[in-house]
Amino acid sequence: MNNDKTAMEQEVESLKKENDALKETVRIYQNHLEKVIEHQAVEKYRVVVQKNREAD
Asked: What CA–CA distance (Å, rounded) separates 56 from 49?
């Protein structure tokens, strides 16, 4: 019985570590995605401004 409890505790600890690693991966990807979206928005704004300047 005690052996089963120890095995379960080890499995839970392993799953917690895996979960933490996945959370960190999600955080990194989310940060990258936010930067990409911001960059695209800035580039789109630059194109609009350039077209407006050319139209004047």
From this structure: 11
Cα separation, 5 vs 20, whole angstroms: 22
| CA dihedral (4, 10, 16, 22) positive or negative | negative
Concatenate the DSSP letters of all residues of the chain into one string. Answer: -HHHHHHHHHHHHHHHHHHHHHHHHHHHHHHHHHHHHHHHHHHHHHHHHHHHHHH-
Task: Dump pLDDT digits (tens) for 7-28.
Answer: 999 999 999 999 999 999 999 9
